[in-house]
Specification:
Order of helices and strands: HHHHHEEEEHEEEEEEEHE
CATH architecture of the domain at 119-132 and 208-300: Beta Barrel
Shape: globular
Structural class: alpha+beta
CATH topology of the domain at 119-132 and 208-300: Barwin-like endoglucanases
Strand order of the largest sheet: 1-11-8-10-9-12
CATH class of the domain at 119-132 and 208-300: Mainly Beta
Strand content: 15-25%
Radius of gyration: 50 Å
Number of helices: 7
Distance between the termini: 137 Å
CATH superfamily of the domain at 119-132 and 208-300: RlpA-like domain
């Protein structure tokens, strides 16, 4: 009996508790719409959540950056974020352009200039430019009335005075009979007993150290300023088409000395007077020169 009474009391109490909860009723057709609405709310909430999360990751890369910081990848993620954001805003083009223009321009101009300076040497200075050549007896008319002789006063030939004077100025001259004469190592003292005959080893004349002269390469200098054999580079001559249709490379060599060649002055040997007449119209009266540091070594 006690057990049965207890069961009755428990059953009654359970009924009271159930009766206090929400009213239980069958599902009606309208309830399906409510479920759809609930679904819509869920869907909206889901989309909102997705959009929010997507927007967070897309618009603010700081999450990735923060995660990267904790992972130790700060530089990679930060660079990536910066590049992506900048690219999206149009800043990447500016940065890229700046980097390319600045770096490339600077590197190319600087390196090229440096290479050229290294190859051609430091600037020596600007020198007065004059010319000399081989005088030819054929180019001078007039009576043959002037004797040419050696330093020992040994007779060589009788020629027009104008040719003898030009021979003394230019230093080298060719007679009508084909012999090539050159100033010898003595003073002419206002006369013409100061020459010697040259052999086939000197087709264009002899320099101050018994060396052959080379047209467009040899220069006469003041040895107090430029030592014999010094190689110089003249940028204005580099690439110049010469009267013989060859192209000059700018290289010159101190092969000679000359009367009236003093200080910052070079006298350029050009072979023929006609070559001088062409070149003097193409070049200035002063020529910038560099100490050669490689480009002209082949002339040594």
């Amino acid at each position: 009996m006690k057990v049965s009474l207890r069961l009755i009391l428990i059953t009654a109490l359970a009924g009271l508790i159930v009766g206090c909860g929400p009213e239980s009723r069958p599902i009606a057709p309208g309830d399906e719409l409510d479920d759809d609405a609930d679904d819509t709310e869920l869907s909206t909430e889901s989309e909102s959540t997705e959009d929010t999360e997507t927007g967070t990751h897309t618009d603010s890369e700081s999450d990735t950056g923060a995660n990267a910081d904790s992972d130790g990848d700060t530089d990679i993620d930060a660079d990536t974020d910066s590049d992506i954001d900048a690219d999206t805003d149009g800043d990447t083009d500016t940065d890229t352009g700046s980097d390319i223009d600045t770096d490339t321009g600077s590197d190319i101009d600087t390196d090229t200039g440096s290479d050229i300076d290294t190859d051609t040497g430091e600037i020596w200075g600007t020198a007065k430019l004059t010319y000399y050549w081989v005088a030819y007896e054929d180019d001078y008319s007039g009576q043959a009335n002037t004797n040419l002789a050696t330093c020992e006063d040994v007779y060589i030939a009788t020629v027009p005075y104008d040719f003898a004077y030009s021979l003394r100025i230019e230093g080298t001259g060719r007679l009508n009979d084909g012999r090539l004469l050159n100033l010898d190592d003595c003073s002419c003292e206002g006369g013409f007993a100061c020459f010697m005959e040259l052999g086939p080893d000197f087709p264009w004349g002899m320099g101050s150290q018994g060396n052959p002269l080379a047209p467009f390469v040899s220069i006469a200098v003041d040895n107090d300023y430029i030592e014999f054999g010094t190689l110089l580079y003249a940028p204005l001559l580099d690439g110049l088409t010469l009267p013989d249709n060859t192209v000059h490379d700018g290289c010159l060599r101190a092969d000679d000395v000359g009367w009236g060649v003093n200080g910052m002055h070079i006298d350029w040997f050009v072979g023929l007077q006609s070559n001088y007449q062409t070149l003097v119209t193409l070049l200035p009266e002063e020529l910038p020169l560099h100490h050669s540091a490689g480009k002209c070594d082949y002339l040594q």
